[in-house]
Amino acid sequence: MIRTHLDRSPFDAAKRGRLPALGTVAVATAALMIVGASTADAATPVGLGTAASYAVLAGAGVTNTGPSVISGDLGTSPTAAVTGFPPGLVNNGTIHAANAVALQAQSDLTTAYDQASAEPISANVAADITGSTLAPGVYKASSALALNGTVTLDGGSDPDAVFVFQAPSTLITGSGSRVALINVNPCNVFWQVGSSATIGTSTTFVGTVLALTSISVQNGATVSGRVLARNGAVTLDDNVITANDCSPRTTTTPVGDGGVVVPPIVIPIPSIPGLPSIPGVPPVITIPGLPGLPGTPPTSSVPTAPAVPPTSDTPGTPGTPNTPGTPGTPNTPGNPNTPGTPNTPGTPNTPGTPNTPGTPGVPTGPDAPGRYSPGSQITQVPGGGVDTGDGSTVRSADHWRPASIGLAAAAIIGSALVLRRRKS
Fold it and tell me: What gap in Å lies between CA 254 and CA 303, rounded to an integer?
């Protein structure tokens, strides 16, 4: 609760006789009016507990693609898987993977989710809130909630205005959608989702997403707030997510002249019908402010206790180095090609057996003389044959025929020669 200068001292001063009774009553009345105006019809901020320091919190691991930048803590529990960091960066925060810190944040997230889902409803909204301009309050969709353009949240004159959106099913924003704020602190915008949330590509989103299952922040989307998933995974893709500083503000009580300053109090006097106004009586009574009470030291609010630094993760036991793989068996050299069997030289031709010179022919000539032995008896055989002496016989006609032919030829030749000579 924000402290005011009306919290103390004026009543004590009245007891000491330094303020008139009317001033005391007026101060009390004004204080009651202020409290009533600040609490009527206002949604309650959702308490995040230790989950407030997280820009990203998951139940089943965080997966990132591309150079996402996370400002704030990043954690997951009970699943310890965190992938994609780097190339993703976590600035002004720590990665908590299934440790005691992340477990406590998940417990506080469950409490916050239950609170947001139980907030009394101010109004029901359509399935798509594109184009709406909404005042502070609690808004509930019948099932899924969509945003396919721009929705404007207008806090009016209340810088502490709170907006709570309840989506019993899913929350899905279209590509390029935008949540615009007018005099609204991003810390006071909450989106309670009964299943999973999808922040579409290039969406400019504001507020804390409390999802029962998973959250997907698609390529190029930015979130000024938090994406907190109770049971499922959170998937990122080249995003910028900034967890706003929502720590309580320190308010200093105005002081002056060494003591508490009481401002002027204005009390209107209602007019009564039928009665004329009294001359000289103003329509209002103004009690001038009092200077600081002497001797009273300046009063200031108790400063907010410094935040307890987050417990650093206990370094995990280094993983067992990878056992080098067994070297592969070197390739067995192939058998060299067996040289081919040289061609067997052909068997040289056996020189042919020289031709045996032919037996010289027996010259044929005149019949060899018969075996005539002088003094031998030439026996005449019957038929005119002659015994040749070798046991054979030749007829006389056959034996002399060649000689007769030769003689005839010689006679012819001789006659021819004689005739030639005569002519010459």
Answer: 14
Q: What's the token pair of residue 126?
A: 């359509």
Cα end-to-end span (Å), the chain: 188
Q: Are 214 and 188 in contact (CB under 8 A)?
A: no
Cβ-based burial of 376 (10 A; exposed 0-12, middle 13-18, buried ≥19):
exposed
CA distance 422 to 418: 6
The 3-state DSSP composition of the chain as helix, strand, coil percent (nearest 5) reads: 20, 25, 55
Kindly report the number of other CB atoms within 10 A of residue 308's CB atom.
Answer: 7
Q: What pLDDT is recorded for position 221?
A: 98
Which residues of the chain are under the pLDDT cut of 50?
A: 1-40, 250-264, 266, 281-282, 284, 286, 290-314, 372, 376, 396, 400
- In the chain, what percentage of residues exceed pLDDT 70? 57
Please say whether the beta carbons of 366 and 405 come within 8 A.
no
Write out the E strands in 29-161: 54-58, 62-65, 69-71, 73-76, 82-83, 89-91, 95-97, 123-124, 133-134, 137-140, 145-147, 150-154
What backbone phi and psi angles, to 5 degrees, belong to 260? -80, 135
Question: Which pair of tokens denotes residue 165?
Answer: 């959106």
Give the pLDDT confidence of 210-228 residue by residue, as tens digits: 999 999 999 999 999 999 9
pLDDT for the residue numbered 304: 42
Task: Cite the beta strand spans of 21-120 per DSSP E.
Answer: 54-58, 62-65, 69-71, 73-76, 82-83, 89-91, 95-97
Q: What is the pLDDT of residue 329?
A: 73
Closest CA to 220 of 206, 203, 234: 203
- For residues 119 and 44, is the Cβ–Cβ distance under 8 A? yes
User: What tokens does 52 get?
Assistant: 């407030």
Cα–Cα distance, 234 to 399 (Å, whole number): 148
Q: Which of 151, 32, 52 is nearest to 109 (CA)?
A: 52
Q: Are 172 and 196 in contact (CB under 8 A)?
A: no
